[in-house]
Structure formats: C-alpha cells, structure tokens
Amino acid sequence: MPKRSTNNRDDFMTDPCDPPKEQEAPEEHPGDFTESGSVITCREDKVIHCLTVIGQVEGHYLLPRDSKTTKYEHVIPLLVSIEEDPRVDGMLILLNTVGGDVEAGLAIAEVIAGMKKPTVSIVLGGGHSIGIPLAVAAKRSFIAKSASMTAHPVRTTGLTLGVPQTFAYFQRMQDRINTFVAEHSGISRGRYAQLVLNTGELVMDVGTVLDSRRAVEEGLIDAVGTVSDAMDALYHMIQNSE
Fold first, then answer.
1. 21: DSSP letter
2. What is the pLDDT of residues 108-164, one digit of tens each?
3. How confident is the model over 179-200, as pLDDT tens digits?
4. Closest to 32 (Cα-Cα) out of 77, 64, 65
5. Does an H or E element contain 111, and which?
6. Are 156 and 217 in contact (CB under 8 A)?
7. For 20-74, how does the pLDDT look when each residue is reduced to its tens digit (9 = 90+)?
C-alpha cells in the first residue's frame, strides 16, 4: 500500500507575506472563499484574516440555495483554526447581515468573544438582529457612516403554539441576547431591552433602527469609521499585544 504523505500544512499553504516565487503559478484553494467568505491579507509581517458575515446566518435549518448565507458550521471551525494558527496575528470581521438563526449567531459570537487574538468588527450596510451580537463580540467595533442596525425581539416562522410556555421560551432567548450585548458593549441590559421592545418607531414591527451615529451614542458600537480605520485599529492592537 502507498504510504501516506507526511507533509505538514506549510507544504501546501502559502504565507501571504512571502514574496511570490518566480516562474511558478500561484496556488489555488478552491472553496476557501466561497465556503467561508474569508481572505488573508498582510501588512509588513503582520497577517490578518478577514472574515465576512453576509446575508442570513444559516443555522440548523437549510436556507434556499439562491439565498446569500453565512453557514455557521463553516465559520465556527474556521474561527478555531484562526485562533490556533500561530501565523495569524488578528482578525477583521466585515458585517452586512439581516440576521438569521439566533442560536447559530450566538454560537459564532461566543467564539469570537472568547478569542485571545486581536479582533475588530465593522458593520457595512447593515448589522441587524443577531448581527448585533456578532458586531459587539469583537474587542473593538466600527460602523460605516451609511450603515444601520435594527434591534428587535426574537421571532419565529412556521407553527407556533399559543401557550404561555412558548412566550416564556422566547423571553428567555431574548434575555440571552440582551445579556450578551450588554456584556460586550457599552449599552446597559435595560436600555437594550427598551430598544428591542420599542413600539413607536417601526410601522409593521417592534424594535428600533439605529443609524451609525446613534449606534455609537447608545454604546452599541465603539466608533464610526471606514474599513481603513478598522484595519489601522487592528494593527495597533496587534502591536500593543506583542
């Protein structure tokens, strides 16, 4: 029987900071970007992993194939590999999401919040619903000037039993979100609950739409900025952590 290859990862993965080899075609990694929505970049000798969270966060239930999704079963293992890879110095999270599966989103947010490596997030376009915990999970957060965030209560689709136990379950799940957001941002748990249950702003829903300025004023996000601002902050965090 043929022997299995003993090559390690460095034999088939290229360090983005290494200069390209002459007369050699660049390596291709099919599926890396399409499956995880991520790319690796670097400045000088610092390697940054950029992760995108777009569309809907897909959880235990599969969404249609034509839906733009971020699949948590791809993202969570990727986050673990980023945390454990000594070549990666930090992570930038680009967010443009309408939300999605609550438990899947919280699971991703918990992994991000528990990472020791420097992490910075930036909301581009929108960071709605469960996108809010994802945004605040990073050690520092930004929001683009034209972006917005929508805080609203937990909801469900499909068959729902109109019994007190169902509403108690929704309340407990909302409490989990409120607690996480308050622990990882500058907003209090009570104030975030007020934004979630606001009945005077959305015509067909309960909740609050926050533009970039108000998101910072409420303490959800640290600062209004651009991708360049987020990158500069991340490199500054990396330098201070050395």
1. P
2. 999 999 999 999 999 999 999 999 999 999 999 999 999 999 999 998 777 778 888
3. 999 999 999 999 999 999 999 9
4. 77
5. helix 102-113
6. no
7. 554 443 343 333 444 556 789 888 889 999 999 998 898 877 777 777 888 888 9
Question: What is the number of domains present in the chain?
Answer: 1
What is Dmax (Cα atoms) for the chain? 71
E-strand stretches of the chain: 38-43, 46-58, 69-71, 90-100, 119-127, 140-143, 148-151, 208-211, 223-224
CATH number of the domain enclosing 85: 3.90.226.10
Place of tokens 């003993």: 6
In a domain, 198, yes or no: no
Annotated catalytic residues are: 129, 152
Flag whether 159 is in a domain: no
Q: DSSP secondary-structure letter at 63?
A: P
Residue 45 lies in a domain: yes
Does 4 map to a domain? Answer: no
| Alpha carbon distance 164, 239 (integer Å) | 52
User: How far apart, in whole angstroms, are the C-alpha atoms of residue 242 and residue 229?
Assistant: 20
